[in-house]
Amino acid sequence: MATFFGEVVVAPSRAGVDDEESAEEAREETPEDREIRRELEKKREIDVLWTLKSGASTESSADEPFVCSKFIVAIGHNAAAFLSSFILDSVCWEVVGVAKLWNEWCRTSNTTNVLPTDSFCLFYRLISDPTVLLCQCSCYVAEDQQFQWLEKVFGCMRKEDLQVTILSTCPVADYKTQESTLTLPSPFLKALKTKEFKEEVCCPLLEQPNIVRDLPAA
Amino acid sequence: MFVPCDRGGGSASSDFKGFTLLMPAVSVGNVGQLATDLVISTLNMTKVGYFYTDCLVPMVGNNPYATAEENSMELSINAEVYSLPSKKLVVLQIRSPFIKNKYRPFCQTLLSWVKSSKCARVVLLSSSHAYQRDDEQLLGTPLRYLLTPDLEKAVGGLMQELNWKEMEKVAAYPRINDTEKVLHIPGGGITKLLFTESCSKGIQMAVLLKFCSEGDNIPDAFALVNYLNEWLQLVKSEVNTSSQWKIPSSWRLLFGNGLPPALF
């Protein structure tokens, strides 16, 4: 489809496969190519480190999946800031994990004492109910890393009776509606829910043809 | 890769033995995907599952084929499978582009799913850049087909009767050596890869494609789906060939929102 005014086309080619890319792949991969590709893949790997009760850090794969009843994920600077301002504090919540990643857009900070302007991905647990987890992910997780993030984070938790809430923001200009977005009272909330979610939703559902993409969609 | 929906039908709803798999290639103008939307919407097909894959950009939204409040709240993601057992038809709709370097693994997994689910044949809807046509291709119909050798034996004769045009091969080294011809589908996404892989794996595959450019591709989608209908006879052919297809509700606002009144 042609782009209309206001649409930001991210993909370089609608065909989904650049002709140069397919020509490149058609060449035989030399051992050097393979090595370079492996190094690049390693650089783009996501590390999720959980801090156990004892304070020692350990790789996520070594742990038993832990019990989680509620998992709230805030993706993007706005959603992360919302949690910092209204929910998180050092009395009720403790840091229990961090995800480290690198891509062309950002590198996550190494510390857990982060500034609001840093790129980070931290996991918190409610001290009074350790099955309630919260994630602030203000760093951009690239397309090729989203699935990995998903598998590594959710791979550590038991999924039975788990309720997941995802908080995210999108520009109003991306919202498709009959009227012009200039006249819309913004900001406004919209929701998407799975059919298993039986509780009341606090705002209207997202109407067609609007969609959500990237990490919140994953 | 394929995850069936939890429905009362159980495994019966994901038994595709002998079915025709219809699917789009993400290609120029998204024509294949638009045509697939028309098929799913018109035949009111039931979703039977989705592909859990890391090869496509994630996306989610509410039911794009909603017709009323009641059916508008089902979530829909980037690769979903719909079925219509009465016509032995199963449709895969792909809604987002491939993640870089992931299209090959996707093709391999897809073709092994085709084999394991015992689909009789695959029909791939696609498109190709109109500006790459040569002088001869500029004249006549912009629609083309391709058949793998296994399917050629079965339906090659029918294509002759329908007076369809086979996609021409082009010289591998134009003006240097005109005798060596290769298949070239610019803007066709994974079309060529899927086709050549199907040829070598003995899968019965047909490719139906239209030459087009980016723009308002709705007429291209109608042309492609009517072309498909000439062969598969999914709906009764009407004189007014666009009225037999139902446009899905998600096609609203394809060209942007309403204008701000302050503009005038």
TrEMBL record, chain A:
User: Which Gene Ontology molecular-function terms are recorded?
Assistant: proteasome binding
Look up the domain of life of the source: Eukaryota
Q: Could you identify this protein by its name?
A: Proteasome assembly chaperone 1
Q: Which UniProt keywords apply?
A: Chaperone, Proteasome
Task: Extract the Pfam families matched here.
Answer: PAC1
Q: Give Gene Ontology CC terms.
A: endoplasmic reticulum; proteasome complex
Q: Compositionally biased, Basic and acidic residues: which spans?
A: 24-35
Q: What GO terms describe the biological role, i.e. biological process, of this protein? A: proteasome core complex assembly
- Annotated stretches, region: Disordered: 13-35
Q: Does the keyword Chaperone apply?
A: yes
Keyword Chaperone (UniProt): yes
Q: Which family does it belong to?
A: Belongs to the PSMG1 family.
TrEMBL record, chain B:
- A GO CC term assigned to this protein in UniProt: proteasome complex
Q: Which cell locations does it reside in?
A: Nucleus
Instruction: Write out the entry's keywords from A to Z.
Output: Chaperone, Nucleus, Phosphoprotein, Proteasome
Which biological process terms from the Gene Ontology are attached to this UniProt entry? proteasome assembly
Q: Which family does it belong to?
A: Belongs to the PSMG2 family.
State how it assembles: Forms a heterodimer with PSMG1. The PSMG1-PSMG2 heterodimer interacts directly with the PSMA5 and PSMA7 proteasome alpha subunits.
* Protein's job: Chaperone protein which promotes assembly of the 20S proteasome as part of a heterodimer with PSMG1. The PSMG1-PSMG2 heterodimer binds to the PSMA5 and PSMA7 proteasome subunits, promotes assembly of the proteasome alpha subunits into the heteroheptameric alpha ring and prevents alpha ring dimerization.
- The protein in question is named Proteasome assembly chaperone 2
Organism expressing this protein natively? Aptenodytes patagonicus
Q: Which gene encodes it?
A: PSMG2
